[in-house]
Please model this.
Amino acid sequence: MAKSTRQQVLTDLLQYQNGWRSGDELAADLGVSRETVWKAINALRKAGHHIEGRKSLGYRYAASAVLDADAISFYTHTQMPVTVLASVDSTQVYAKEAVNAGTRTLPFAVLADQQSGAYGRRGRHFYAPASSGLYLSMVLPNAGATLQNVGLLTTGVANAVVDVLAATFPGQNFGLKWVNDVLLNGHKVGGIITEAVLELESTSTAAFIIGIGLNLTTADFPAALTDVAGAIQVGADVDRNLLAARIIDHVTQLYAHYGDGAFLPAYRQRSVTIGKQVTLNLGNERVLGKVLDIADNGGLVLRDVFGTVHTFTSGEVVKVENSH
Model:
């Protein structure tokens, strides 16, 4: 599908981010009039892109306060199609429905500026207000059609996301609470959920939908969440398009070889649960004990209060205490 003038102008400005582009240059390169370029610049500004203009120099792309599929696609090194929605109940639900309807080729990614029905593990609501977070679902085909090492997929994605966050916010000490919570200063700033889409005829796994929710600059949380949730950096100027692209790239790279567990040493180093007394929620049952390690399959190695050592591949750590 041919790109619109608006898309072409955006791509051109992104390519020359460190320099200025005159209206004449843009018009000549794109084969359009200067007035058409001017209209495209205005449309981009109206959409939320910060584009500087100087009479003698031309235009220069400064930053973006808005999620933009074209900008994300420009920054990524993958060929993954990207969809950006202004608002949706859940990017996970949207992605699942698209896969089940067979309307999208895999892989693809969908992001939303805000979500009204975002959820994490066990269906728990995730607060996802407009403009201040990154809410992303990636649909990745499962070539092997098996469910092997799913624990490694979730832990691997969590570690890949924190790799990107650590590079984006240097000096911040991110931690990982098994299996998929991203912590900063004792507060949850992000979570990852991995869901399988089954081939109904064969009951094999057709694809994985990886949901990533990050509180980037959110200043205010509902009263029920103020003790547990936090933002990475309130008031920061975060280019969400660049951040989304880096996460898509890192998760795509990780997905190609997550089964080898090469990331586990880094995950263990970031773990806030190893060596701690925890309460593990298994649904109808709770287990108390000390976390000894993260297993090679991504499971939680825990010695319970009776001295028995278990490896859990599912469940949720609901409480972490300092060991005595």
Remarks:
- The longest strand covers residues 187-199.
- The chain has three domains: 5-64, 69-270, 277-321.
- The chain has eight helices and 14 strands.
